[in-house]
Amino acid sequence: MHIPDGFLTAEVALACAVPAVVAVGIGLRRANVDLDERRVPLLGVTAAFVFAAQMLNFPIAGGTSGHFMGAALAAILLGPWLACVTLAVVLGVQAFVFADGGLTALGANIFNMGVLGALVVGGMIHFARTTAPKATLAIAGFGAWLAVMVGASATALELAISGTVPLGTVLPAMLGTHLLIGVGEAVITVAAVSAVLSTRPDLVGRPQVVVA
Amino acid sequence: MKLFTILALAVAIGLATAVSPFAASTPDGLERVATDKAFIESGKSQDGPIADYAFPGVENERLATGLAGFAGTLIVFGLGVVLIKAARRRPTVA
Using CA atoms, how far apart are residues B42 and A170, in angstroms rounded to an integer? Predict the structure, then answer.
């Protein structure tokens, strides 16, 4: 879902970059609060896993493939704000080193594939009445799917506002293809969270959403 | 934490290096929509040190992808840790 340069107008790209920068800034300021010394490597590991899993395109119907996004997984392991930092690291390296996703569209890509999903899933965890493993896995599954759909909708909206393609054309098309990609996201997220729950259940907690 | 870090990083490097060369190469969701709805031409092509996940100077496509995945996973891990360590050195306001 990486937007290349040229799809968005400068105004739309900037309007998306502002909330992306704010969310990443909050994440960096919360680095002391949300992570204790012991768990510092967790952010690096999560970013590394998200990057690796994003390379594994899986085929869906109609000669199309989907790939992992990772915002839901990062939000479950690190809380929503550090998840924004994690996705910004992944998407930043992809844009600058791998020419994947436009440089001017980087803010929009961080917003669509990182911030939105991280806040949706972080909110779900915050308002869930329990942190029992079953509830966490349910949030991992549904939240991951929802994160992809929200990201796809936002992408469609940005393309439409930019005048690249009409909303009535792009929104149903984006939602249609990402319906199945979201299922892939859910499967990978549940598998990864299950793996962490079975080896290090203490890493899956109830991160704070409120900015103290 | 150390064991978990090493294991999880090994899984990530393994996936990016050994599995990614065999991943699907068909267009992803947005590329598909952009092609079907005829706005793919608005996109500008870009360049980068390891553009399109092909390690430069390596002829074998699968090897080039695997090397790109290996390098990228380490870069992302390193940048993530360095960034968060730098952020933690600053006094917290929150």
Answer: 14
**Buried/exposed code over A79-116 (b: 16+ C-beta within 10 A; e: otherwise):** bbbbbbbbbbbbbbbbbbbbbbbbbbbbbbbbbbbbbb
Q: Is B6 on the interface with A (CB under 8 A)?
A: no
8-state DSSP, A66: E
Place of tokens 């870090």: B5
Identify the three-state secondary structure at position B90: coil
ipTM: 0.94
Q: Taking the CB of residue B59, how many other CB atoms lie within 10 A of it?
A: 7
Which B-chain residues 53-82 have CB contacts (< 8 A) with chain A? Answer: 53, 65, 68-69, 72-81
> Could you give all domains of chain A from N- to C-terminal order, each with its CATH number?
10-203 (1.10.1760.20)
Cβ atoms of residues B71 and B55 within 8 Å: yes
**Chain B residues inside the 8 Å CB shell of A165:** 37, 39
Q: Is the pTM of this model over 0.80?
A: yes
Give the dihedral sign, CA A187/A190/A194/A200. Answer: positive
d(CA A91, CA A173): 24
pLDDT digits (tens, 9 = 90+) for B6-45: 999 999 999 999 999 999 999 999 999 999 999 999 999 8
Q: Which of A153, A156, A155, A158 has the alpha carbon at shortest distance from A170?
A: A156
